[in-house]
Write a structure and sequence with these properties.
By secondary structure, the protein is α+β, with helices and mostly antiparallel strands. The chain has one domain. It has 8 helices and 11 strands. The strands form 3 sheets. A 5-stranded mixed sheet has the order 3-9-8-5-6. Strands 1-2-11-10 form a 4-stranded mixed sheet. β5 (about 65-70) and β6 form a beta hairpin. The protein starts with a strand and ends in a 9-residue tail after the last strand.
Length: about 200
């Protein structure tokens, strides 16, 4: 099934795709490069992950051991506040010494204290509301969180999306035409759902 709303050049378009489960990873490059989400802002990162994305504290503690906020590693996700327009990157524990140094709250964290994210208590947001952030996923976070976020809907650059779609098999591109409408957009809201067994990719 393909649903599109891509007729107005320069405006925010919308594209909904239903693809086989084994095609979902085709969209992972978009999640690595960065995508925009509407989420609660003005709150600690843990609150965003738990209340905004529906993750459990157990998952956050055991699976998301590397967190970057605007390019700086975060140790205290309860004391680091997310603000509108910031970039949040999530990954599991990465291998090697570098991975150990970047792991939040790890033994080697003091070695990179100069680049660690720190929130000034006086600068902490005084309100919690809806905002927009750029999110990036790496490692197993792609496979574990990516499909749900794609189904929820993400905003990406139209040019980046066009490149990904051109690499999809023909059955997944069916109904998209020549992508001229997509290329006329600056940003596109993309939703990708997994086709049920026994059903095609287009209704």
């Amino acid at each position: 099934m393909t649903e599109s709303n891509l007729a107005v050049p320069g405006a925010a378009g919308r594209l909904c795709l239903t693809v086989p489960a084994d095609r979902v990873p085709c969209f992972f490059p978009l999640l690595q490069k960065g995508f925009v989400l509407g989420v609660p802002v003005g709150c600690p990162i843990r609150v965003l992950l738990r209340d905004g994305l529906g993750l459990t504290d157990e998952y956050i503690e055991t699976r998301l051991q590397t967190v970057f906020l605007d390019g700086k590693p975060v140790d205290d996700i309860d004391g680091a506040f997310i603000r509108d327009g910031e970039t949040l990157a999530l990954a599991p524990a990465m291998p090697g010494l570098m991975g150990a140094m970047l792991r939040r709250g790890g033994f080697y964290a003091p070695m990179r204290s100069g680049i660690t994210h720190r929130d000034d208590d006086n600068a902490a947001p005084r309100w919690i509301g809806e905002g927009r952030i750029t999110m990036k996923l790496f490692g197993m976070a792609l496979r574990e969180l990516g499909p749900k976020l794609l189904e929820r809907g993400i905003e990406v650059g139209a040019g980046d999306l066009s490149e990904v779609i051109r690499e999809l098999p023909g059955d997944c591109r069916e109904g998209l035409g020549d992508l001229e409408g997509l290329e006329g957009q600056a940003r596109v809201t993309l939703r990708v759902t997994i086709a049920q067994e026994g059903k095609g990719t287009r209704d």
